UniProtKB/TrEMBL annotation:
It holds the Pfam family MazG. It comes from Shewanella electrodiphila. Keywords: Hydrolase. Residues 35-108, 176-239 form the NTP pyrophosphohydrolase MazG-like domain. One of its GO terms (molecular function) is nucleoside triphosphate diphosphatase activity. Its EC number is 3.6.1.9. Coiled coil: none annotated. The keyword Hydrolase applies. This is Nucleoside triphosphate pyrophosphohydrolase. The gene is mazG. InterPro entries: MazG-like_dom (IPR004518), NTP-PPase_MazG-like_C (IPR048011), NTP-PPase_MazG-like_N (IPR048015), NTP_PyrPHydrolase_MazG (IPR011551). It is an enzyme of class 3 (hydrolase). NCBIfam families: mazG, PRK09562.1.
Length: 276
């Protein structure tokens, strides 16, 4: 290796070359050649979630593979853009390097006083706000992606408006709002049996308000709701698998059990977990 050259200097080039070959009009992969910006978005979201899942499961042996899959998504977008004469991978690298340098004046110094984490965050927010204004994005909410998971987007919206004081000062009114929204859901739900078509959309609307309020409560408690819900999903799945084991041991199929019997299994599994 030449002196002064890092082994990572050209490490991305083989991946870029593979991507070009996959998209080759004559010899490329039929599936890859059919894709466009919109069609690969669902795969990008899926890969991002798989990275998050590997981290949450502490599966660090799998994490390099998952990060590679996510990086491939970035390279795919860059290849599509390169084919259309818009930008390429080097443009993306230049953009993020410029942004990180611009948003970290405490590291790439223009102001040595920016040393605390809080000051760093304040500086970051101020720089982002300036960038939004330069892009003529006059709404505080203009650059929050609509494709984010709904719970994550709710948190981003709430954090953004809180910066200008549009927020409750403590937890009590937040909790009261959750109870208020529950009451409003139940008020509309009372009519579902008699007029389902008329009231279904009203219930959907009120449930949306309730979920938004719950996200706000999580934010005030310092809880990431998307992560908390994933953990709840995992816990439910683990316990229900325990219920299935209990049902199998009883000699009856699970659908032959009454709800009371299944509830008893559920409580048994919960107690077993607590005893560990």
């Amino acid at each position: 290796m030449p002196k002064g050259q890092s082994k990572t200097d050209n490490i991305i080039q083989p991946l870029l070359t593979i991507m070009e070959k996959l998209r080759d009009p004559e010899t490329g992969c039929p599936w890859d050649k059919q894709q466009n910006f919109k069609t690969i978005v669902p795969f990008t979201l899926e890969e991002a979630y798989e990275v998050a899942d590997a981290i949450e499961q502490a599966d660090f042996d799998s994490l390099p593979d998952e990060l590679g899959d996510l990086l491939f998504q970035v390279v795919f977008y860059c290849q599509l853009a390169k084919e259309q004469g818009m930008f390429d991978f080097s443009t993306v690298v230049e953009k993020i390097c410029d942004k990180l340098t611009r948003r970290h004046p405490h590291v790439f110094p223009t102001d040595s006083a920016l040393v605390s984490a809080e000051k760093v965050k304040q500086s970051w927010d101020a720089i982002k706000q300036s960038e939004r204004e330069q892009k003529q994005q006059f709404s505080l909410l203009a650059d929050i992606p609509v494709t984010l998971p709904a719970m994550n987007r709710a948190i981003k919206i709430q954090k953004r408006v809180a910066k200008v004081g549009f927020d409750w000062p403590d937890l009590a009114p937040v909790v009261a709002k959750v109870h208020e929204e529950i009451d409003e859901v139940m008020e509309e739900a009372k009519h579902l049996n008699t007029e389902p078509e008329k009231y279904h959309e009203r219930v959907v609307d009120e449930m949306g308000d309730l979920l938004f309020a719950v996200a706000n409560m999580a934010r005030h408690l310092g809880v990431e709701p998307e992560q908390a819900l994933r953990q709840a999903n995992q816990k439910f799945e683990r316990r229900f698998r325990g219920v299935e084991v209990c049902a199998e041991q009883s000699g009856k199929s699970i659908d032959e059990h009454s709800l009371e019997e299944l509830d008893a299994y559920w409580e048994k599994v919960k107690q077993q977990e607590k005893a560990k």
